[in-house]
Structures are given as structure tokens and as C-alpha cells.
Amino acid sequence: MGDGKLFRKVKPNCIEPDVIMKECDSWGVHVQTVCTVPVLFNYHLDPTSGVQWSRFINDSLAEQVKQHPRRMVALGTLPLQHPQEAAKEMKRAVLEKGMRGFQIGSHINSWRPCSGGTASVENIMLNDERLMPIWQTAKSLDVGIFVHPWDMEWCWQGYWLPWLVGMPAEVSLAMCSVMLGGIIDKIPDLKVMFAHGGGSVPGTLGRIEWGWRCRPDLVAKDSKLNPRDAVRKLYVDSICHDQRMLQIIIDMFGADRVALGSDYPFPLGEVPSIAPITGEILNAYPGQLVETSPHLSHQVKARVLCGTAVEFLGINPMDYDLPPPTLQ
Q1: Where is the Amidohydrolase-related domain (predicted)?
Q2: Which residue among 14, 66, 187, 230 is the one 20 to 30 A from 59 at the CA level?
Q3: The most confident of 161-170, 225-234, 263-272, by mean pLDDT
């Protein structure tokens, strides 16, 4: 529910670990990364409620992983609207609950002061100086940050465009705020991954770089790193629904920076579904785009399907039910 209205009906495969594992088995998925859905980020909450909410979600995710410790890895959530408390929750979730990273939104929809004052209404982007404790803590804990788009109400609502166009645009704004906003300059080895193949960035990187070169007074004022070099320090997932674009993404970011994404269990993900009205059966499964690509070598496919995620999550493959490297 949202604002008293039904937002989305969820199926058991969204919340029940045994159902998730059964579907993973049917597709040959060995390990699943679990996290909350973006609508539950709740960045509008006051700091105290935000911390309580994040702890509840993270504890719940940890309990899910306990049921399938060799098959599941969790990415926690954070109260970004209160960075100091978010940093504390990062330490608790990693050290006490075993989180291997955190999922955050592409921006914060309002700013909640620590004490007193009035919440701001402007969108806070990820390069905001007030968020530095979160980036610094992620680095010190050696965990990754996964950025997922959300809050696309600014986009025209017709034709499902908030999801088709708004989400890629949100990813692009978030990625640009990180690479142009100086985050990579300040913390070069930070592990940050962006959803949906980097959104619109692969198609607009040339334009972004040209702007960086022709108007450095506007574009390069916070980072001296060429955007083409900057993207190779970031991670993206493989969800792009087009083999030609997947090849572009791998060429642009590097195979060692592209991880398998599924957007499971939602219809825009790489999952089987039946289209309303037309009844078209979409026989997709996680990893299909990568596995069936005629352009990728076996080594590149293995890296995208498994190796990059293992590196990003900082996990030991021996602790999980992963196939031997020769079979990946």
C-alpha cells in the first residue's frame, strides 16, 4: 500500500526463501543475492523511525540467509536521510548480521535534520557531502554499495514510462553524481554497482565526456577523472534486454565490472512471464542474455555470470554452492 492505495501485489517468490530457492534450482541459479524492494527504502521517515525500519529489514534479511547460508547473500538497507546513524547501522549489519553490502536508492527524496529544523524537499544526490560517512564506512568495511533506481514520479506516467524510461534516467543521474561529483576521486577503490546495466549512461557516455571536455567549468569542477575512465572504476549489472547493448556495456565498463543481474522476481527482470492481453509467453531465465550471446567468450561469460559478483560481494566461493571455476 502507498498513500492508502494498492501499489503492488507480491507473490511468495518475493518474500519466501524456500520458494525463491525452488525457482533458482529450476533455472540453474546457484546463489541468490537478496535485498529489499525500493518502495521500502522509506527515506521520508524521521531519523529515529528510519533507523528502526532499516534494522528491521536487515534483521529479516539475515534470517532469510540463515535458512540457506550456502545459497543466499544479503544486501542490507540504510536510513540515508540520517548518514551518521546509517554508518552505525552499516557496521552493525556487517559485523553482527553478515551483510555483504548495501542497496541504496538513486537519490534521497527529502532531507531529515538530526535534530530540529525542517525537512528539505529537494532531491539529495549521492555526491552530497553529508553522505560521505556512508561511502567512507563502506570502504572501511570493504563492502559494496548497490544503487537501484526509485521514485520516478517526475516521469510522465503514460505507457509504463516511469519504469521503462524513468528508471534508466534515475540510474544515469545517480552514476553521474558519483563519477562527476568526486566520490571516486576521494575514494578510488570504493565498490559501487549500478542497476540495469548503468541505465542510460552507455548510450550517452560520449555526450557526457564531450561536455566534460568542452565545458569543464560546469562538468569537471568536482572531478578531474575523464568519464570514460571513471566508468571503468564502477560496476553495473547485466540487465539490459539486448545482446548488442550487453556487448557495448562490457566493452565500456570491462567484463570484470559487469555482474549478472536478474531483477527477480519482477516482470521487467530476466524471468519467465505471460504478457497480459496478448498472452505471449516470455521464456526467460536469469543469465539467458549472457549465456546465449554469440559475441562473448566462455571466459567473459563465466566472469559476468559468477566472477564479478563474487569479487563485488567479497565472498569466498568455497563457502557457497558454486560450481567449480571450470564449469562456470
Answers
A1: 48-315
A2: 187
A3: 225-234
Domain range list for the chain: 12-317
Single pTM value for the model: 0.93
In CATH terms, the fold of domain 12-317 is TIM Barrel (3.20.20)
pLDDT at 323: 81
Cα separation, 212 vs 17, in Å, equals: 46
How crowded is residue 10: how many other Cβ atoms within 10 Å of its Cβ?
11
